[in-house]
């Protein structure tokens, strides 16, 4: 690869020194090596986070495959703003939703499939702020309101995507989010 900075690690394997942004730009030029490097860097944490939302490894693998296929097909969808990792997460969570869409009662299935020892990212964040004012206010929310906050705020899903994930109408997501905002404001005053 002409002009690509790389170094040799102690085991003799070349390591690509390009930034994530440089890799995405190289993917726009059909650089398969850049796609491979992006995959190597981000697949482990994406797999872990998706696995916390869906215990079916086959569905998670399909979502990951779809994620990197989308990156290959449309690298220009990253506009050069923000972190590449955040862009990848957005693609990955939407790919997971797409895999789950045909299934009825998604939330129930995910709860049944998730092992008792698995802790979601949202639960980790909530555990860290549990003793803060925000944590106390979040814990006081009903499970329905908390689920909407988690889907829309922590996972960054649109109203429609959150509705699909939670198995409720979009209007219900909006009204629950409005109630959650009001309750959080009141609790934090």
UniProtKB/TrEMBL annotation:
Keywords linked to the UniProt accession: Sigma factor, Transcription, Transcription regulation
Species assigned in the record: Nocardioides bigeumensis
Residue ranges occupied by any RNA polymerase sigma-70 region domain in the UniProt entry: 38-104
The protein's name in its UniProt record: RNA polymerase sigma factor
NCBIfam families hit by this protein: sigma70-ECF
Taxon lineage: Bacteria, Bacillati, Actinomycetota, Actinomycetes, Propionibacteriales
Domain RNA polymerase sigma factor 70 region 4 type: 134-182
UniProt family annotation: Belongs to the sigma-70 factor family. ECF subfamily.
Domain of life: Bacteria
